[in-house]
Each structure stands twice: as structure tokens, then as C-alpha cells.
Amino acid sequence: MTTLRDEEIQTIAKDVALANAVPVQEVSTAPIFDSEGKPAVEVTITILPEQVPSILGEPYYRTVTGIIREVADKGDDRLPLVRIREKKSAPRP
Amino acid sequence: MHPDPDSLFDQADVLVNNHKDETDLRRAISTAYYGVFHFTLRALADWIVGATHRSAARYVLVYRSVDHKILRALCDQFRGAKRNAVIQPYEPAGGFGPIESFARAVLYLFEQRISADYDPAHSFNVADVSSTVSGARTAARDFQAATPEQREAFLTLLAFRSR
Question: Residues of A with CB below 8 A from B134's CB?
């Protein structure tokens, strides 16, 4: 079993997302547990609010399933749980 | 009659689009998962018993033979591209095709559903929930895009345990 570093998972997530036309702004990871109590990894993909409609359906689906496959293929037993977040606008001066 | 998967996906959309609070968003996630769950059970029972016998007792018997844990456990074995020793003997000659991503999506949707139904610490936002609902619909389409052999191999593994 391999435990990928956070940066490695973030790179996987970003590459898979971009390959599936998900315009990633940021990717972050955090430790979490899955429903069976096993270690998992939360992968948060941040996109701009106006880009949410463009990722619905195939782009989102291929991104989630692609990240799960890539992390498993690299030998990490942790299940990646992908979340989408909207990037908050910078406060007006 | 079993719950109609398309109606469940529609309900999930309504919950997201008209949400009053996070409870509606949580119900949308749960409903989307149940859409895929019932979609899978219907595919299984339609294949084994036949869609023309949906009110027959034996249809119900097959439909109710699979619970969430059984489905999750099978889908968990499709995480990576390489099949394990349990699955490999039943793999169609051309592989499982779209069934692989379908299984990964079901695994993911199950986890989202557990968070939505039971995890008070996790907060859901509209972007995450609308994406998840759209992913559930796409999963059902992906299953249907598989060949009959690929679908039947998956459903066989779902219905029967290897010894």
C-alpha cells in the first residue's frame, strides 16, 4: 500500500479535472474517514461560480471517477471524496 | 411498483433548485443516490425476472436481495483499472467498459449520501450538490452505454457471491 502525499493527490485531481474540461482554480486535500471508518481523503476542487453550469454532467462525472481510478492505480487505498466549492469573490475595496 | 429512478433524479433537481436551507440540499444528495440505487436494482430484476413481471413476487425477491452494503462492496472492487482475483474471472473479453466508471460513481454517491444523511459536521453547498445530482444521472446513462455482456457480468457479481 502507498500513501500519496497531499501534493501528489492535488496534482492528480488537477490533471484529471482539466482533462475533463473542469476549469480548476484550486485543489486542496484533507484527511477524512469513509463510511466504513477507513482513512479517506477529501479532495476539494474550487471553481469560479459562473463556471458551475459548465461542469455538470460528463465533466464532473469523469473527474470524480477519474480521480478515484488514478489514486487507486497509484496504490493508495484511501478513497478520494471529491467536493466542489465556488471561489469566493474578493471583497470590493 | 418500485421507485422510478428518473423521478428520483427529477426530485433531486427540484430540491436543489428550490432549496430553502441545507436540509433540502442534503435530501437532494440522498435522493440522487437512491435514484442510482433503484436504477441498479431495477436493472438486476429486469434482467433476471423480466421487466414484464415487475409485480410478481419473484421480481420483488430479486429486487430486495441487494442492499446498500452489497452494492458498495462490489463497486469498491472497481476503484482501480486492474481487476482483483474475485472479479477477474467474470470480466468480459473487452473488459467492463463503462461499468467501471459507473461503479466508481456509485461508490462515491454512496459516500456522499452517508455524509448527507448522517454527518452533521459536513456542510453542503449548491455547487457540490448540483454537481453530485448531475453525476448520478450520468452514472445511469453510463451503465446503459455498456454492452449487454458488460452489464450482465456486473449484475451477476451483484446477485451472487463467489466462493
Answer: 56-57, 60-61
